[in-house]
Amino acid sequence: MSTIAVAQLCSTSSKLDNLLNIAKCAHQARQHNCVMLFLPECFGYMGISAEETLANAEPPIDLIATNAQALSQALVSMVDGNDIDNETLQTIDNHPISLLDGLQQIARHSQLWISAGGMHVRSSNDTKVYNTHLILNHQGELQCHYRKIHLFDVHIPVLLVPSAFTVPTGSAHWHILLRARAIEQQCYVIAAAQYGQHNTKRCSYGHSLVINPWGEVLVDAGGVDRPLTEPPSIVTCDIDLSQIQSVRERMPISVHRKKAKWI
């Protein structure tokens, strides 16, 4: 049995503020003895337009910040539950900030694995943005990255759905779609979500969720229609992977699947 933390954020156009909020969530997760922190889509930046998002996307290769030392000290302080003085914040904010460098520092100091839901990374020709999912281990080492093009393999025990759903689509579809995915794939669904008013044009639905293989909602962080906490915040949940096998044995749908020829 492992305890995980699902973060609910309201990201803005300030990478520094967003990283500091993630550090706060890491501090909370560490207090609950969690082993992994799951972040939502757009955790590092929520722009007001596609042009702004592209301009502030991370470079494709060199992700090392020029003020990495000052940023590192600030994030370590936040993970430890301390506040940062305004002069230090101003100094850091006046220089380029690397989201990856910041996440690595948070992971190392908190000793948490981090699922970084979706980071904007520029393409090599600087014309497109890849929505890139990162997994970092507790030593801050990048284990893998995934550009959101194809669906996850259906045989894995956990589906990660980092999200930034709008309010209209979220209120209509969010819970239904995620519970359906958990039931049909017979796996856990962990969905870290953005929540709240990011800027004058954008509001996200919220409701970070953990759903078990039977389709039951184990935790729900609340959202615009049912506020429970203000971001940045986390909800924690114990994940029992043995339940997956139990559900699949009771309802062996994968055994009943037949290969079909598509015309």
TrEMBL record:
It comes from the Eukaryota. InterPro entries: C-N_Hydrolase, C-N_Hydrolase_sf. It holds the Pfam family CN_hydrolase. This is CN hydrolase domain-containing protein. Residues 2-241 form the CN hydrolase domain.
